[in-house]
Amino acid sequence: MAQTLLMPKATAIWLVDNTALSFDQIAQFCKLHPLEVKAIADGEAAQGIKGLDPISTGQLSRDEIARAEANPNHKLKLSEPKVRVPESKRRGPRYTPVSKRQDRPNAILWLVRNHPELKDAQISRLVGTTKSTIEQIRERTHWNSANLAPMDPVTLGLCSQIDLDMEVEKAAKGRPLPTAAELGATLQSAQETERLTPSYEREEEKEIDADAVFRKLSSLRSAPKDEDEDEQY
Question: What residue spans define the domains of the chain?
Answer without folding.
Answer: 8-70, 98-174
